[in-house]
Model the fold of this input.
Amino acid sequence: MAELTNIRSPRVKAARRLTKRAFRDRDKAFLAEGPQAVREALTIDGVTVELFATADAESRHPDIIGAAAATGVPVHRASGEVMADLTQTITPQGILAVCRFVHVPLGQAVPAGARLVALLAHVRDPGNAGTVLRTADAAGADAVVFTDASVDPYNGKCVRASAGSLFHLPVATGAPVEEAVRQAKEAGLRVLAADGAGTTTLDEVDLSRPTAWLFGNEAWGLPPELLALADEVVRVPIYGRAESLNLATAAAVCLYSSARVQRQTLHSVEDPTTSPR
Amino acid sequence: MAELTNIRSPRVKAARRLTKRAFRDRDKAFLAEGPQAVREALTIDGVTVELFATADAESRHPDIIGAAAATGVPVHRASGEVMADLTQTITPQGILAVCRFVHVPLGQAVPAGARLVALLAHVRDPGNAGTVLRTADAAGADAVVFTDASVDPYNGKCVRASAGSLFHLPVATGAPVEEAVRQAKEAGLRVLAADGAGTTTLDEVDLSRPTAWLFGNEAWGLPPELLALADEVVRVPIYGRAESLNLATAAAVCLYSSARVQRQTLHSVEDPTTSPR
Done:
């Protein structure tokens, strides 16, 4: 197999431009780096357009190369220099997929019957957004909505921080916050805004009902007009002397608290002899 | 006041060398950047050696300059170039303190009667370690122990991520993991290792007792010989399809779960008419 060694070759340039949002939006495609993300992408029909892999990565990940062959996804062998050019990371993992967009319309991400959803209102740091996506997946959330004021879910850092979760659960992107909140309410979800300004604490709020958590900006939280959209504003209690929690940490505590209470509630409804712990 | 404009001046060089661990250990001092950290440092007697501030930061933070004057801490006005040289951040906040070490001996950080402690076993990323410190503070933990295989708590990125919490609760550093675990057990704490390999989940384990959480490395968790030191190995349940949680997220879920259950337990003991929520 001929190795791509020239960072100016048309194939490499076409992939590299996907590191910029304008080109991602135009091509409706993005880059997913690393064996974990590539493996996940290959499990979904029609998502992976092509792979780039160094010779070393090919020999380290025969399962991925095999899965690509089985689904007819072309694998281009790339030099270390080309890979470094495409991945924008300090220590590239040697394998990268060009993927078609995976997001779904808002109504499909947040349908009637959803029980736990994360709405990102003004989350600007891609690492934070990806971490919240990963945590929402772990907590068994039904979907994550990136509203139009939040970072692009296909940003390379966000994809990396999501650790494959971008491919696991429905993600919607681009809707205004107001529309996302309206959709959540129409789907029967209670909208809880997570904000240090809340008068209700996480220990006090009823978490047994289907819930959409609204998370704001890393530095300044949620502005009053967005807090006003929520059914309730809830703060994570600070038991010590910290001024606040960081966004991804607060989201983890909120999403896991909901998951725990919802599971206890479901459990006690399904099996009345088992008391919730 | 004369402004420091030369990055080669002895005063600036003496401060800058504290960006390196070897010099921090020699001088028993470190740098705390930003108004929040500096404000916290000034609240503790004898911690702050001197401040560096740009003219702009001085006018923006008269409270800090006032507090320094009141406690006899010298303030050196620094040019933007000097500040950028000292802070190593892309957007320096214009104010920086040289502080004396604040850690305490292990036995003082984890005394008999402690109820919630975080032990960092092999946490290597300073941002993660600082975030766990901030979260432990928020969850009302009694102390955080940075063992000898973990990052230096005085690393600039760790201090920044801790958002002032380094000054809020007792921190111990440098003890081997084994010694930290032994101390926790002697202080009457149950040692729970947080690891995806755990057979007990966070929903099942008894969190009402005084607990020391042992957290491992970002990438590879806790090795068998450290898991064996714990009273129990506990995993955060994954309800969705994520492979795992990131370290700071998992720590947040564990520490907040402990805090919630301990508070409910205390509450129900103190007031038997109130049932735990």
Summary: Residues 271-277 of chain A have pLDDT under 50 and may be disordered.
